[in-house]
Every structure is written in structure tokens, then in C-alpha cells.
Amino acid sequence: MRKKKYLEIYPEILYGNKIKINIVGNPKGLLYLAGLLTELANVDQEKVEDLPVGDREHTHLYSLNDLNEHSCEVEICRADAKGTGEYPEYLTYPY
Fold first, then answer.
1. How many structural domains does the chain have?
2. pTM (2 decimals)?
3. Does a structural domain hold residue 39?
4. How many angstroms separate the CA atoms of 60 and 24, rounded?
5. Is residue 90 part of a domain?
6. Does 84 map to a domain?
7. Alpha-carbon separation of residue 1 from 23, 26, 68 (angstroms)
8. Are 77 and 86 in contact (CB under 8 A)?
9. Structural domain for 59, as ranges
10. pLDDT tens track for 19-53
11. Residue 26: which residues within 8 A CB-CB, separation 6 or more?
């Protein structure tokens, strides 16, 4: 039984096409990811001094550091920009 955090995030590729993203973890790993997502969702970007207006708070997860060896690098990013609340042009926000 694993006692350490175990978390893998990787794309499943079939015939050269990405068909889904797999997130696999033990309870500690999934709670770690949940904590990162909660922290990112709750951060007040307006109070982050080294975040320029128009940028978005984000974090990177790296294989063999934050994730297990079969994972690829993952970037988790807020969609809303500091100071403007705008979303990237490539996103459509339907609400």
C-alpha cells in the first residue's frame, strides 16, 4: 500500500489523436490536486503584486516532482485575467 502522494496526469493518444486526459491518484494525490485547484480558484489576483494586469495566476506540475513518472507537464491556469477579468480569445465563455 502506498503511503506517499501518487498522482499521474497524462493524455491517452490513439492513432495520433488525443482522445482523453487521464488523472489517476491515490487519496493523498487527489487531495493534493484538489488543494491546488481550490487555492488557484480562491486566489485574489488583484492582490498578487508580481502578477501584471492582464496576466493570469497559474501553476505548473512536473513529472518526477509534483507528478509520477508517466505524467506529462501540466499547467493549470485561471481563465480570468487580473484587472480586466477577460478570458483568452480562444475560449468562449457561455455564461
1. 1
2. 0.82
3. yes
4. 17
5. no
6. no
7. 19, 10, 16
8. no
9. 7-77
10. 899 999 999 999 999 999 999 999 999 999 999 99
11. 2, 5, 6, 7
